[in-house]
Design brief:
With 215 residues, the chain is of the alpha/beta class. Helix content is 34%, strand content 19%. An eight-stranded parallel beta sheet has the order 1-8-7-6-5-4-3-2. Bound molecules: 5-O-phosphono-D-xylulose (5SP) and cobalt (II) ion. Keywords: Carbohydrate metabolism, Cobalt, Isomerase, Manganese, Metal-binding, Zinc.
């Protein structure tokens, strides 16, 4: 069954503790935590102090998506603050292999992601080093954008590649995911679906969980 990772970017931060409780009760699998630095992406979101507090109020795995330049400077702090999975952008560092090693040295799951304009083949040399590959289906920086269908072939490529090479990384999809686009992602082999604006427009979070899983 596909895993569901709501993007907290779209939740109501004035009621964070209530939101987290509702998410736990609805059966979501990960909490997706979008970190934006105003440099790698043209927006600023939240960072370490919020992550530390989030860690204190949930046992759900925290899936940190670092949209920050030079992530090697910060991955240690994001590990210590309570992330379970740390995903970095290939485009954000000249040292992607080293950053992934650093994440694993902190006993965290290492993820890599690419912008829509980046060729998926560029990931080949590091696919044996990752626990998760995140396919961006919007340009990172904002919630509420439309799903770019041309990215679906990256999911198929990554699914074929792991089967052909005996690898077991998870394939996660992020950006513009709703009930319809979720079905397209599941067909291509996606394992984890991130959803922000679609998810949080519902009052009862059981509903988007069911719909995104195609139940
Ligand atoms: O990383 C990002 C955006 O950069 C995402 O995680 C979004 O927050 C997803 O939001 P929706 O596209 O589902 O509204
Ligand atoms: Co994200």
């Amino acid at each position: 069954m596909v895993k569901i990772a709501p993007s907290l970017l779209s939740c109501d931060f004035t009621k964070l503790q209530e939101e987290v409780k509702k998410l736990e009760e609805s059966g979501v699998d990960y909490l997706h935590f979008d970190v934006m630095d105003g440099q790698f992406v043209p927006n600023i979101s939240f960072g370490l102090p919020i992550l530390e507090q989030l860690r204190q109020i949930t046992h759900l795995p925290i899936d940190s998506h670092l949209m920050i330049a030079n992530p090697e400077v910060f991955v240690g702090q994001f590990a210590d603050a309570g992330s379970d999975i740390i995903t970095v952008h290939l485009e954000a560092t000249p040292h992607i292999h080293r950053v992934l090693q650093m994440i694993r040295q902190h006993d965290k799951k290492a993820g890599v992601t690419i912008n829509p304009g980046t060729n998926v083949n560029l990931l080949d040399p590091i696919l044996s080093e990752v626990d998760l590959v995140l396919v961006m289906t919007v340009n990172p920086g904002f919630g509420g954008q439309s799903f770019i269908e041309g990215m679906l072939e990256k999911i198929s490529y990554l699914d074929d590649y792991r089967k052909a090479n005996g690898l077991s990384y998870e394939i996660e999809v992020d950006g513009g995911v709703n009930a319809e686009t979720a079905a397209l992602c599941r067909e291509r082999g996606a394992d984890v679906l991130v959803a922000g604006s679609y998810f949080f427009k519902h009052d009862d979070y059981h509903e988007p969980v069911r719909r995104l899983r195609g139940e």
